[in-house]
Predict the structure.
Amino acid sequence: MTHIPNIHISSKLKAAHVCLLLICIGGAILRFWHLGAESLWLDEGATARRIQLTWPQLMAELFFIKNHPPFHYALLKVWGSLFGFSEFTMRFWSAVAGTVTIGAIYLTGKKLFSTKTALFAAAMVAVSYYNIRYSREARFYSFNILLPLVSMYFFMRIVLFNQSSWKICLGYVLASTLMLYNHYFGIFTLFAQSLFVVTELARGHSSLRKVARLAGLAAIIILLFSPWLGVVISGTQAYHQTSSIVLKRPNLLELPGTLVAFCGYHPVASVLVILTMLITIITLWPKVKRTLTPPPTATVPPSPSLHSRKIVLLILWTTVPVITPFIISYLSNPIFNDRYNGGAFTGFFLLAAYGATCLKFRHVQWVLIVGIIYCLSLPTRYLHREKTNEQWREATGYIEQNAEPGDLVLFDAFFCYFNAYKYYQKRTDLRIAGFPTNRYDQSISETSQLLKQRSTFLIPKKTLASSNAAGGPPMTEEQIHALENPLSPPTLIGGHKTVWLIKSHHLDQHNLLLTHLKNSYNNEEATSLRWINIYKFSNRSLIE
């Protein structure tokens, strides 16, 4: 009789492991299914271009742009040198990170709460549009969800459960260091952890020995990240000058908008998940308040339950990585963007999962859980049914199939050529040009030569300015007139019988270039692809 409970527990664990396995398999299918089917979009193309540079060239570019840490690029460069630089291979590790996130949130949820909460959180992540979307991109955002989660997992084992073996400490240091080398927003996860330690100290829950241990681990993390600290510091001023081009100052609605983004922008899923999270916080707020409020100095502080401390950690985990960059965006440079806030994503889902599994009425609990999972899964169908990326593969193929030798392919944003079109380019008998450049008649061979010169870490900024700009001032009438400047023969447009104009991510906000071409040349055809418009113009003076 004494062995029956053990058998019962063992069968429950086996059932939980089977459920987790099925959830992970389903999540992996959603992430790997037709992973290389769509074209690279602009930012993925930038990744592809960078990882195919030599190591000195790659580091020189990252040192120059300063706002991209090297971990993800280094990983893909090593991987690509072994297995090639196809769409699938470049997205492979993002899909792996997204799949591993499912298992990682299960382990975290089980350690914090229960197996049921952990399985629900894993199921939410498995079908999450937000996680699947970034798991299918050759970018660092999938790791920006996974690595903060792993860092938090080891952190809470050290702080909440007093587990400080060398393996746990090593796991925390490695996860936190890679988190910083993957994306600078990892610092906000570390900030949330620091605030939690402060609350622990204020209530007398952390011993000096534990704090000293955490301080030592933090020192090791800083030491390991120190080779890149100079780049971060020197890049602050440069980012101050360019951040407003890419990001705008957020409004207050973007704070809850981040939670809506986590729910895949589905209104019903957003309401259910946010409501469940709020019910959890409101229900447990009296205990949380006692945990956060410093005790009177004359009395011995009451010892709050481990449970309420877990909730405090989850609240800080969910809010700090979102609110902190929001405040910075108001006080200084705009840095707020929901795709950067992945560090809070898993904490948000854990908090919601816990609230759902704590409902008293079992039938209501299961209806809510099934409803949330179903609603979260609805937006993911869009990723597999529709084309979601910019169609640079199709655009390049269309032009190269229809263009004649010597035709001009003109970009209203030249970085689209280097970061997308060039990846698919096969023909070398077409002339390429675009904005912004220092000379509007600059040939692609000259610009490519500038790129090849990046063989040292000490590179003048002007060397990279024309090819790597991801934005810039709007196009002006003077720039348009410079296209036909007879003082710098051959003119960019005038000497070509056919001009193909590609508009995407354009700096020509008022369509000055398109208007100029329509006034001076015959517009023979226009083709629209996703986020790309192609126009074909013929030179009237050269038509026989």
User: Anything to note?
Assistant: The beta strands are 408-411, 431-434, 498-503, 521-529, 532-539. Residues 437-472, 485-491 have pLDDT under 50 and may be disordered.
